[in-house]
Backbone:
């Protein structure tokens, strides 16, 4: 076993070192610390890199490398640079963009961090990087019964994958409970309490890779929204209506065998630990007329707390969700217009609203945000802080004649950190607000005129 | 109200004012009818509240999605599982098409209502229409005052509310409107003799045929009335125009509805109309000939025609009898037979008898459903005889027949309700007319004794009748001899005639008949009190009794409202966590099966022991079994309580299931005294599986006893889901083992023979193959 692993390692080293030779070697990483948080089903990785320019020319971007298996599950990469000394240390957010480089070994994908100021030769800089992986905890065994707890595999590398030379690095893995079935050992490896420590490792060449496998217990809610459609309907008569359609699934180990209500209700601590039934949605402040229902009507198990800072909707699906079970529901609410709809200096209106899913600790596989602009609005444009797919639609609602413009934004793999505000700008003339009342008034007027005319006409042939 | 009813003495302005007033009253009545049915939506939510209407809702959804042509051709393999159902050919499409059209109309105006919303509010909208139709019908019978009263009564009659609250999306919702409307158009045609109304009447009848199986009531009641008119010598050309086009056009149109089809000319329910059609023509011919012949020639002709006619009649009757006798049920469907012979269903068709709404009603249910109308109806009948017209004789016939039918089947209380409202409307309106009239007379008489003769003319006859009615209404002595009343009536008529002949005596007569002012005021007060009591009762019934949905149950405890939403929990679980093609066997929604379906193996399976049941289910490709169980929370209408019906129905198809096997000394019990057959039946096992672990004793709160067999295991089923309050339990059939060890051969042959002998050939499929 050990021999084969060594062989594998050597092979990878060999392969990687050939492929990595062409990467820019102006930069080296003096010190790297990686903290992997496995507490929920969203894997959060905090990476602190101290980089140094050892080349001759200044550097404007720093590359991050990810193995192809992780790239598909990568929801978010954020980077910030530490500026200032000790006490006055502040963090400046940096741009991160995915970058295609042809020379990635084994399909390694790159993200590049654009530095604000070029890093001159000899200078050093500390970068704080956060990235999140979804669907990266693989349940094993694949199916568990009601009384078992859920075990998952986490796969990564003991060494940080990087196109740069890393002088010293350490990796910490935080597990949700003390129960860890097994973990790969790449000396030095320690386990203390909830933490696994890999390293420190010194002087790893670029693209060093040493696969590790951690088999741990994770009974957190593996709540995944497969499909979420948020529809924001703006009415200039004073309110904004939001309708959110959820398709929720428990993405953990599949439930095996029967479901016994006796055991579930009798021993809540021991039974169905991997299932979940409570969900929390953080809604905007001053939210009103909230409803929570599904195809067959209202779901009575929900509680709402409205505050001036935030509102919280605690709710339960109709039944507890076990692995593989699904539930669909709709949450709808209204929010006051003046808090979210503004007029920009150039006369255009804009909506300022948060993008992501209001559920806490939930992954959304596919998120569609539809902004239904009022009838008669023109030239919509969107400002979103990250990449989304945009398109336009047309929708006919109450007594519309020309229809309303709908801005559709689509994004896959959304985590709660995507809940950042975005803006939709559009042109709107207030006269359009009167279109429908005028239409109704004229229809009724015509109706009465016709009936008066009819009553005064004598159409009979005989007098 | 009566101002608009009395002849327009104050000229056209007053008349116009009355018209506008009654228009606004009608609008308000419509609003009342709509809004009194919204309790369920306001107290609970805007969903379809009952189980059965979900089928109609599903059909409507299909219609709106796929269009009308696909709807006619729709074969639904989801309902009535082993057989499937040709929806287009077996449903009354009226309700579905109505809601579909309303939905389409709203959506084409860009009003994005969901199909569900439209379905939920269809019934309240049509109950407003129904009260307007009742106004029109009563107006034709007894004038607008009675019409308005009847409409107001119908808007809130509890019997109708029970079937038309928002969220109950049933055929009856539109059918009552169609029924009353058809009657109105018939009476209108009868009064005017206009062919235009006759055609409308046929179309309205067509709508009724589309909506509800109860259309046979119309097609039997109208011929009865026509016959009555002929027999009592009231034949006129108006009667001919009212009836002949209805039969011809109506039958043709009815045959267009797939579910009726050739039944419109082939079943006995419709024969009465054809027979009367022939009689009407004979009478018409006789009248015609009488007109063109001299009296002597006519006598000759009569003898000639009679002799030929009798022969022809015999021939026709013989053919008719032969045709009827050739058909299996003697041409009458089971439900119609159970109407004629109330004991028929309980004797022969347990599936019809098993539904509670097909039982005869109890006396309290009359009071609950029509309340004070029950006391006003006799007064209304008497008012209809003063004087008897074509229209009022129709109203009398309507109330008499509907009283009989409501006595047979509690469901038909619904047909009685409009009739009772019309009659009570007439009674109240006449009584008010009499009382206010006599007050007016007294006041005028005291102030100006000379000048009021013309003004008070219509009052002359009324006070006496009014008094009689008030006596009736207040003392509620219905048993008082009708002959006495009739005599009184005859006297009135005679007196009226005499009064009109001798104008100089009028004043004296009037003075004699006018009531003292004190008693008039008292009478009005009492009547208003009666009306107020009725209103309070109706609002209570609408708010408390009939608006509680059956898909959500609530109970009030000291710490607030407790919601039992188990059914939807289970349905949601089923819809999200089972495959689309999985079959679920359940016995709960049996009313869906009811319509003609007696062949359902699941009942049989439920009453069998576990293994046999598993084989049956497996042969039917059923994957899940769905049981309603109320033992934990005390929900009485669960499957165990309905189990005996399943046994009876199963026994009807498979004679070896015997009801006594499940009864101990004639008692149905599930405790330790229960019979082994009962304790081993699948229903018992699925209901009480692991139930004992909840409280250690297995105490059933519905039956108020400890269960008989407490610890047992299921070998062929596994529990896959149980809702929060245990009201729904879902089991999955375990898959057959791949390999059969040891006794395989033996058990195999046994299994084959047992299933072969017990299950009908259609399902004889060896589960092991």
Residues:
């Amino acid at each position: 076993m050990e021999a084969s692993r060594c062989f594998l390692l050597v092979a990878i080293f060999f392969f990687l070192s050939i492929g990595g030779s062409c990467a820019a070697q102006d930069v080296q990483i003096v010190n790297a610390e990686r903290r992997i948080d496995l507490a929920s089903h969203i894997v959060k990785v905090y990476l602190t890199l101290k980089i140094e320019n050892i080349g001759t020319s200044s550097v404007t971007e720093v590359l991050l490398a990810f193995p192809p298996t992780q790239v598909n599950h990568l929801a978010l990469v954020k980077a910030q640079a530490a500026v200032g000394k000790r006490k006055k240390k502040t963090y400046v957010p940096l741009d991160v963009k995915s970058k295609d480089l042809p020379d990635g070994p084994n399909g390694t994908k790159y993200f590049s961090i654009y530095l604000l100021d070029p890093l001159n030769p000899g200078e050093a800089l500390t970068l704080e990087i956060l990235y999140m992986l979804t669907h990266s905890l693989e349940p094993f065994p694949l199916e568990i019964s009601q009384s078992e707890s859920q075990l998952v595999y986490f796969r990564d590398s003991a060494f940080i994958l990087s196109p740069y030379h890393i002088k010293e690095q350490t990796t910490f893995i935080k597990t949700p409970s003390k129960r860890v079935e097994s973990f790969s050992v790449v000396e030095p490896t320690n386990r203390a309490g909830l933490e696994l420590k890999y390293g420190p490792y010194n002087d790893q060449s670029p693209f060093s890779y040493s696969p590790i496998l951690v088999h741990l217990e994770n009974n957190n809610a593996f709540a995944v929204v497969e499909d979420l459609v948020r529809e924001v309907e703006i009415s200039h008569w004073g309110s904004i209506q939001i309708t959110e359609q959820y398709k929720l699934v428990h993405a953990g180990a599949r439930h095996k065998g029967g479901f016994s209500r006796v055991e579930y209700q009798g021993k809540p601590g021991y039974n169905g630990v991997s299932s979940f039934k409570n969900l929390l949605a953080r809604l905007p402040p001053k939210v009103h007329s909230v409803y929570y229902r599904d195809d067959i009507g209202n779901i009575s198990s929900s509680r709402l707390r409205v505050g001036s800072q935030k509102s919280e909707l605690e709710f339960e699906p109709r039944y507890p969700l076990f692995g593989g079970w699904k539930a669909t529901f709709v949450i709808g609410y209204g929010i006051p217009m003046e808090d979210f709809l503004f007029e920009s200096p150039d006369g255009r209106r804009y909506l300022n609203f948060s993008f992501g899913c209001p559920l806490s600790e939930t992954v959304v596989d596919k998120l569609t945000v539809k902004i239904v602009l009022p009838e008669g609005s023109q030239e919509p444009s969107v400002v979103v802080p990250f990449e989304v797919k945009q398109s336009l639609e047309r929708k006919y609602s109450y007594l519309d004649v020309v229809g309303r413009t709908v801005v559709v934004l689509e994004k896959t793999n959304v985590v709660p950190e995507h809940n950042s505000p975005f803006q939709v700008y559009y042109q709107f003339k207030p006269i359009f607000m009167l279109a429908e009342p005028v239409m109704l008034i004229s229809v009724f007027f015509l109706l009465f005129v016709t009936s008066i005319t009819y009553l005064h006409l004598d159409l009979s042939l005989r007098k | 109200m009566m101002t608009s009813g009395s002849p327009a003495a104050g000229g056209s302005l007053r008349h116009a004012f009355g018209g506008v007033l009654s228009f606004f009253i009608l609008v308000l009545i419509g609003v009342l009818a709509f809004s009194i049915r919204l309790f369920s939506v306001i107290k609970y939510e805007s969903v379809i509240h009952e189980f059965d209407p979900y089928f109609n809702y599903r059909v409507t959804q299909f219609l709106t999605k796929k269009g009308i042509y696909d709807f006619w051709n729709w074969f639904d393999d989801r309902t009535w599982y082993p057989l499937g159902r040709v929806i287009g050919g077996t449903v009354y499409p009226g309700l579905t098409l109505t809601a579909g059209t309303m939905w389409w109309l709203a959506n084409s105006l860009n009003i994005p209502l969901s199909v569900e919303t439209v379905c939920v509010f269809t019934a309240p909208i049509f109950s407003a229409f129904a009260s307007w139709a009742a106004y029109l019908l009563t107006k034709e019978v007894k004038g607008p005052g009675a019409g308005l009263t009847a409409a107001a009564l119908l808007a809130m009659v509890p019997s109708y509310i029970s079937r038309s609250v928002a969220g109950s999306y049933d055929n009856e919702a539109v059918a009552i409107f169609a029924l009353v409307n058809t009657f109105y158009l018939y009476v209108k045609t009868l009064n005017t003799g206009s062919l235009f109304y006759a055609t409308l009447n046929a179309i309205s009848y067509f709508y009724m045929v589309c909506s509800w199986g109860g259309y046979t009531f119309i097609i039997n009641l109208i011929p009865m009335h026509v016959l009555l008119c002929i027999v009592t010598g009231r034949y006129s050309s108006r009667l001919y125009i009212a009836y002949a086009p209805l039969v011809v056009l109506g039958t043709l149109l009815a045959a267009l509805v797939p579910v009726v089809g050739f039944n419109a000319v082939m079943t006995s329910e419709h024969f009465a109309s054809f027979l009367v059609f022939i009689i009407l023509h004979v009478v018409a011919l006789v009248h015609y000939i009488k007109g063109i012949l001299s009296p002597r020639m006519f006598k000759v002709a009569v003898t000639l025609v009679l002799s030929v006619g009798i022969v022809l009649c015999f021939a026709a009757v013989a053919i008719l009898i032969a045709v009827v006798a050739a058909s299996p049920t003697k041409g009458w469907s089971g439900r119609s037979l159970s109407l004629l012979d109330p004991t028929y269903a309980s004797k022969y068709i347990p599936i019809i008898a098993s539904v509670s709404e097909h039982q005869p009603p109890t006396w309290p249910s009359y009071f609950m459903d029509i309340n004070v109308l029950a006391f006003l109806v006799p007064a209304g009948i008497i008012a209809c005889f003063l004087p008897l017209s074509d229209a009022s004789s129709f109203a009398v016939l309507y109330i008499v027949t509907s009283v009989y039918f409501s006595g047979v089947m509690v469901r038909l209380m619904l047909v009685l309700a409009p009739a009772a409202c019309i009659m009570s409307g007439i009674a109240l309106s006449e009584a008010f007319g009499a009382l206010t009239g006599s007050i007016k007379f007294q006041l005028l008489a005291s102030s100006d004794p000379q000048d009021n003769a013309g003004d008070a003319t219509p009052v002359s006859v009324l006070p006496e009748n009014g008094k009689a009615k008030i006596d009736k209404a207040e003392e509620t002595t219905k048993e008082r001899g009708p002959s006495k009343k009739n005599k009184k009536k005859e006297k009135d008529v005679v007196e009226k005639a005499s009064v009109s002949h001798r104008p100089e005596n009028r004043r004296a007569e009037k003075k004699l008949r006018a009531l003292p002012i004190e008693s008039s005021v008292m009478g009005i007060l009492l009547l208003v009190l009666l009306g107020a009591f009725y209103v309070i009762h109706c609002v209570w019934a609408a708010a408390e009794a009939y608006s509680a949905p059956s898909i959500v149950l609530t109970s009030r405890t000291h710490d607030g409202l407790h919601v039992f939403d188990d059914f939807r929990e289970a349905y949601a679980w089923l819809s999200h966590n089972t495959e689309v093609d999985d079959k679920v066997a359940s016995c709960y929604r049996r009313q869906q099966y009811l319509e003609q379906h007696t062949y359902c193996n699941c009942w049989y399976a439920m009453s069998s022991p576990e293994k046999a049941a598993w084989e049956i289910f497996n042969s039917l490709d059923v994957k899940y079994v769905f049981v309603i169980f109320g033992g934990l929370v005390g929900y009485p209408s669960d499957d165990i309580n309905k189990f005996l019906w399943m046994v009876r129905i199963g026994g009807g198809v498979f004679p070896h299931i015997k009801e006594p096997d499940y009864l101990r000394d004639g008692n149905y019990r599930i405790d330790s005294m229960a019979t082994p057959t009962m304790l081993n039946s699948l229903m018992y096992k699925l209901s009480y599986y692991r139930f004992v672990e909840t409280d250690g004793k297995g105490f059933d709160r519905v039956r108020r006893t400890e269960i008989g067999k407490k610890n047992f295991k299921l070998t062929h089923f596994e529990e896959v889901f149980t809702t929060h309050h245990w009201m729904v339990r879902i089991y999955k059939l375990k898959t057959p083992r791949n390999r059969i060890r040891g006794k395989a051969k033996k058990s195999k042959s046994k299994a084959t023979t047992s299933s072969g002998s017990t299950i009908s050939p259609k399902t004889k499929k060896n589960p092991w193959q």
Remarks:
- The first strand of chain A starts at residue 27 and ends at 37.
